[in-house]
Amino acid sequence: MKNIQNIREIVGRQDESEKIIRNMFGKMEHIVTLTKPPPRLRVFFQVGFDPIVTF
Q1: What whole-number distance in Å separates Cα of residue 11 and Cα of residue 21?
Q2: What is the DSSP code (8-state) at residue 36?
Q3: How many Cα atoms are found within 13 Å in the side-chain-facing hemisphere of 27?
Q4: Is the previous residue joined to 51 through a cis bond, with omega within 30 degrees of 0?
């Protein structure tokens, strides 16, 4: 993205470069959202009654 900013200054295409950078950030945020780990599950499981055995 920094390279796109540098090139836009050379060629003078501010509007097009802003659209490209916004699009790239949007895609990056979407990927981060999709790859977040799922919430950790908490489970109680009782195996025995006398004696009480759980894990």
Answers
A1: 16
A2: S
A3: 7
A4: yes
Say what the pTM is. 0.58
Range 6-30 burial, b when 16+ CB lie within 10 A, else e: eebeeeeeeeebeeeeeeeeeeeee
Q: Is the dihedral of CA 19, 6, 31, 29 positive or negative?
A: negative
Q: Over the stretch 30-39, which tens digit does the pLDDT of each residue have?
A: 999 999 998 9
Main-chain phi, psi angles of 49, to 5 degrees: -105, -35
